[in-house]
Amino acid sequence: MDLQFTIDLDLCIQCGACIDDCPFHIIEMSPDYPALNPTRIHHCIQCQHCLAVCPTGALSILGFKPENSLPLPESLPSAQQMAALIRGRRSMRRFLPDPLDASVIDHLLRTVANAPTGKNNRQCLFTVIEDSATMEIFRRETMEGLRTAVIEKRLSEGQGYFRHVVTAWDQGRDIIFRNAPHLLMVSVPSTVTTPDADMLIAMSYFELLAASMGIGTLWNAMIRWAFSEISTDMYQRLGIPEDHVKGYVILFGKPAVQYHRTVQRDEVQINRVRLA
Fold first, then answer.
1. Dihedral sign, Cα of residue 12, residue 14, residue 16, residue 22
2. Distance between CA 235 and CA 140 in Å, rounded?
3. How far apart are CA 211 and CA 215, in angstroms?
4. Is 246 exposed, middle or buried (0-12, 13-18, 19+ CB in 10 A)?
5. b/e 250-271 (16+ beta carbons within 10 angstroms → b)
6. Contact call for residues 229 and 162 (beta carbons, < 8 A)
7. pLDDT tens digit sequence for 221-245
8. Mean pLDDT value across residues 198-203
9. Element (H, E) at 255
C-alpha cells in the first residue's frame, strides 16, 4: 500500500503530534523525523489525522498536501453563528423553480462527503437529481405509480393518504415534491456496520450546510413511503444498487420564502446522570 507519505524536513519541528494522534500507530520517529512503520501500513484507515494535526504543514499523505486544506481554527464559524444556524434552519415547503448551479450542488456534496461515519466508512452514495427535466420525469412517474396503486386498490393499511395526494396532484398541487427542483438520497451498502447512522449524519450535514448558503431543504419520508406502494422499482430507476440500505430523501433548491428570525424551542428533556 503506497500512502504517498512525505515529510518536508525544512518545516517539520519534530513535535511528534502526528505520531501521537495516529489511531493505529503506523507513524514512528525514525530516527529524527516521522516515518511510516512498514509492518503497520496496512492498518491505515486514511483518516488524514496526521495531515490535519501537523502544526507547520510539513506532512503530506495520500497525495494530499496541507496547503490545499482550510486552516483551523480561523476558518470555523463562531459558536453564536452555529447556534443561529441550528435554530434558524427551517423545513422548506415552498421552492422557486429555478435550479441551482451545478457547481453549487457539487460543492455541497463534496463538502458533505467529509461527514463522520462509523469505522471511517467512506461508502455513502449520494444520488442527486440536478436538472429540471429529470426532476419533472421523476415526479410524474412517481405520481402515476401512486395513481395506479390507488386504482388497483393496492394501498397498504395506513397509506390511504396517498389517495388525497393523487387528487391534489390532479388539481395542480404537488404535496409530495413541493415543486422542489432537486432531490438527494443517501444510500449505503448493507455490508457496512452503521448504514443508518452514516446516512442520517450525511443528510444532517447537508441540511445545515445548505441552510448556511441560503438553500432551502425538506426532509421527506413520503417519497420512501410512496415507493413502497409503486410496482416499478423506483430505486432501480434512480440507479441505486439493490444491496444498499436506502434512507430518507431531501428535497432542496432556492427557497420561495424568507424567514427573519429563529423560532423558540428551548424545551428539552435532559437526563443528567451523577454516579459519584
1. positive
2. 15
3. 5
4. buried
5. bbbbbbeeeeeeeeeeeeeeee
6. yes
7. 999 999 988 988 999 999 999 999 9
8. 96
9. none
pLDDT interval class at 122 (50, 70, 90): confident
Distances (CA, A) of 107 to 100, 128, 213, 236, 272: 11, 13, 11, 26, 39
> Which domains are present in the chain?
6-68 (3.30.70.20), 82-253 (3.40.109.10)
CB 37 within 8 A of CB 27: yes
Helix-, strand-, coil-residue percentages of the chain, each rounded to 5: 35, 15, 50
Exposure of 108 by Cβ count < 10 A (0-12 exposed, 13-18 middle, 19+ buried)? Answer: buried
Which cell numbers hold the place of 127?
A: 444520488
pLDDT, one tens digit per residue, over 56-95 is: 999 999 999 999 999 999 999 999 999 999 999 999 999 9
Question: Would you say 145 and 135 are in contact if contact means Cβ atoms under 8 Å apart?
Answer: no
**pTM for this one?**
0.91
Mean pLDDT (the chain, rounded): 95
- DSSP assigned state of 45: -
247 pLDDT exceeds 90?
no
Task: Say if CB 130 and CB 108 are below 8 A apart.
Answer: no
Mean pLDDT of 199-216: 97
- Please report which helix (H) or strand (E) contains residue 211, including its range: helix 195-212
